[in-house]
Amino acid sequence: MLYDLLITGGQVFDPLNKSFKKADMAVAGGRVARIAPSLEGEKASEVIDASGLMVTPGLIDFHVHIFWLVHRISIHPHNLVPRAGTTTMVDGGSAGAANFDAFKEFILTKSELNLLAFLNISILGQIFETQIPGMPSMNEYEDLRLVNVSETVKCIEANRDLIVGVKVRAFHGLTNLTPVHAALDAAEEADVPVMIHTSPPPPSVSQYMPLLRPGDIVTHLYHPQPGGLIDRQGKIRQEYRDARERGVLMETGLDRWHTDFEVMKRGVGEGFWPDIISTDVTRFNVEPFVRDVLFTASKLMAAGMPLEESLAAITINPARAMTRPQLAELKEGGPANITVLELLKEDITFVDFFGQSLKGKERLCCHWLINKGKVVK
Fold this sequence. Notes:
CATH class of the largest domain: Alpha Beta
Oligomer: single chain
Strand content: 25-35%
CATH architecture of the largest domain: Alpha-Beta Barrel
Largest sheet: 8 strands, mixed
CATH superfamily of the largest domain: Metal-dependent hydrolases
Order of helices and strands: EEEEEEEHEHEHEHEHEHHHHHEEE
Radius of gyration: 20 Å
């Protein structure tokens, strides 16, 4: 048989077992046709020699902002391909029920990538987030008439193929928890998770963290003190431990001022690494801080997170969080969304928004990206 693509000699990553196995892989018709220890002698229109490289399911960036030109800070999703190695991107609440149809029409369905979204509990999403110098900041919950449970649920029901959960922002200065309670009500009714944006108080994590359910997601895990992951004694705050024990997922949402390397190093040092590694990428942070999900994962590895855990956090963990495990599977008959990675050995210094440095000795980079069976040039 003449295959469309052969990937030979690579170490194939199994996210379920967090392990590697040397194998060849054949692709035909947008699907994984065969996986075997060796496919020597087989013919294909294109061959990739992955010797010394890692072959993983197409990576997932679980928190991006891609409502291009409407949410002013959003980036166009194609600006991150292929260097990011992602075949799935999940928008983190840029749109709400009143403008989701436009997001769907002009962005989500206009890409060969797998683009999904959390729906903001505000019906207008984050479109007030203009970040224009000299203009007072606004947020999507200043008028609580925009916080609408029934419209949110109706939008989710009509777009279950694209919407994976409800987003709410417990940003600094939020005057009450009405948006948080509304997001939880909508998520409960629609049977989807909530992603909650965390930041320094007010409000305090002690007010909203106990409300979160198993499968809900806390983003901006390593935001600066006070009131964050690390308490005044330098230990993991109990609210975070309690939440994780009952099944709440922890996600990086790196961004700029939402991540402090000192907090990250202490958290990872105590084994409190993220379930999900994501960027919270926008057009204002993509350079030089965030870049892409591989650069972000490399920072976590420099802080002490193991390679296998880091790869799981950009494949199977976010896929499960969306109840779409097939997005992180490489199996015969499954979709051929594949990333071929190199663990580049080099001395590198990462720098955070606050000027703090983190030294690493390796970095993940994408050599080839295969989306729906086609090599992305």
